[in-house]
Design a protein that fits this description.
CATH topology of the largest domain: Rossmann fold
Number of domains: 2
Number of helices: 13
CATH superfamily of the largest domain: P-loop containing nucleotide triphosphate hydrolases
Order of helices and strands: EHEHEHEHEHEHEHEHEHEHEHEHH
Shape: elongated
CATH architecture of the largest domain: 3-Layer(aba) Sandwich
Number of strands: 12
Oligomer: single chain
Strand order of the largest sheet: 8-7-9-6-10-11-12
Length: 328
Amino acid sequence: MSCFVLLITDLNAVHHEIASHTRGIRLVTREPHQLTRQDWDSAAVVLVDAQAAPILRARPQPLPHRDAVTLLVDPEDHAEADMYRHALDLGASHLITIPDAAGALRKQISQVVDSPRMVVAILDPAPTGESGTITTACLALASAAAGEHLGLLDARHSSVDLHAALTCARFDLLPAGRGSVHVLFAPDEHPPTAEEIRQTMTDLAHQHAVTLVHLDPHQPHTRALLDGVDLVIVPVSSQTATEPHGRDVVSAARRHTPHVHVHITGADLHGDLAEAIAAGSGASMSASTRGAVPTDSSHWSAALTDGSHHRRLWEVIARHRPRAGRTT
């Protein structure tokens, strides 16, 4: 079976929405009147816009039932009885609302891709964003050490300069045959719009196995961007881990993203606190006994050379990474 996703729709908005989730696999879009039997039979996954479903059902020659057909439904229309009749007549095995269930759609697509792509967002609840910047830098270094080819979009400005952090890091300490980090920085004078960030995320995800996106959780457009993310990492210090703004960020991320991970740092971290945070947030959790990252460059430079901290963070990505599989 050819490895491409077939999208049946005549709406540009639906095409653009689905394109942001088809990472590492070709997307072929057909209007319902243009659909050929070869398109239908050859695709690895078929996605049918609910508005196109009546046209497909009215074809003089009905389409044969096949595996891996999904009906895409608007959240406002998912309860209508017609949606289920469309799904039954077209042999759809899944009915997914978009963008609400984008995570389920990406999971389906990842099952037919040899090397599924992954987008990870770093959301630091603190206004300064320092911990988020250092976490992003540490993940980039861990990726290079693991031999990965990583894309990185820095769309948040903080008191720690990510470019300086990566420049000061000892890349020469990484093993031979290391990976690469492709970094894009958002300009200070003209911050990108939500649509520009989304498009850049999509472009990077098509080019790299893992893409990191450093975002400000307090920006109004950030929550909408999380629909295109596979994992959110929320770095917090042990002193601020239980504060309301941190819990709000975790709760918001869980509504949009399939996996949320809280990474706690602090010299006074203890097991009871960690367990309480994990239980209260519903997210997975890891901890580092390194102290909270200050703005002093000599201190955050030390954090960037802590290989064990890098590996601990990279294990979070490895644990939640989508795996290739078979459609059912």
